[in-house]
């Protein structure tokens, strides 16, 4: 791998879906994520990367999944299987603890929360792209949940839009080791310029 270097004027950290339902004990989806997330220390690594990005004065953006509200999807003609699952589980329900940011990931003053995505990509039908462009961002460092859905879809979409993307592989998690392998070793290398560890990204941001 070539020497990692990130110009803070054109680079941002993108944090995907740090909801309690995903990454906190008691969250609706945490039991499915827990084994992989604990094996690679995903949540502590996410915290470390976020702290390093803030210390390095990078801009921080959040790409958050749509929070369930009563009536969602009921009148839709077509609904994707992943959306149907969210409807049944009432994932990230608005107004509940599960639909709130985990405390360590509450945005700081000046950090930007893009409009919520309805499916997997943080870019599709949101203002994320325009927010990034208006702030002069060309490079993204991506962390969060889930590797084979929202992370992969967001990384693919970012590459299509012309962003240079780095994924921090031990600051993401998935439902199984097989899904992690498919996302990080088969699919995302086609779209992410770098797939690195927390240790590597912190060293690069601290240089």
Can you offer a commentary on this structure?
The chain has 207 residues and is an alpha/beta fold. It is 38% helix and 15% strand. Strands 3-2-1-4-5-6 form a six-stranded parallel beta sheet, with helices on both faces. Helix 7 links the parallel strand 5 and strand 6. Helix 3 packs parallel to helix 8. The longest helix has 14 residues. It is globular. The protein starts with 10 loop residues before the first strand and ends with a helix. The model has no long low-confidence stretch (mean pLDDT 96).
Count of DSSP helices? Answer: 8
Strand content: 5-15%
Q: What would the principal axes of the Cα set say about the shape? A: globular
* Major sheet size, sense and barrel closure: 6 strands, parallel
Overall residue-averaged pLDDT value = 96
């Amino acid at each position: 791998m070539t020497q990692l270097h990130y110009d803070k004027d054109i680079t941002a950290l993108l944090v995907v879906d740090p909801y309690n339902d995903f990454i906190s004990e008691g969250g609706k989806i945490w039991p499915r994520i827990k084994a992989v997330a604990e094996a690679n220390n995903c949540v502590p690594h996410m915290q470390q990367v976020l702290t390093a990005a803030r210390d390095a004065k990078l801009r921080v953006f959040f790409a958050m999944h749509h929070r369930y509200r009563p009536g969602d999807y009921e009148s839709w003609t077509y609904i994707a299987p992943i959306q149907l699952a969210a409807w049944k589980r009432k994932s990230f329900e608005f107004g509940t603890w599960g639909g709130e940011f985990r405390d360590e990931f509450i945005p700081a003053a000046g950090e930007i929360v893009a409009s919520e995505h309805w499916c997997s990509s943080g870019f599709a039908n949101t203002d994320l792209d325009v927010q990034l462009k208006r702030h002069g961002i060309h490079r993204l460092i991506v962390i969060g949940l889930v590797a084979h859905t929202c992370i992969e879809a967001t990384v693919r979409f970012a590459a299509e839009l012309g962003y240079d993307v780095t994924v921090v592989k031990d600051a993401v998690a998935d439902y199984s080791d097989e899904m992690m392998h498919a996302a990080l070793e088969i699919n995302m290398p086609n779209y992410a310029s770098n797939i690195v560890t927390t240790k590597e990204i912190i060293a690069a941001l601290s240089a």
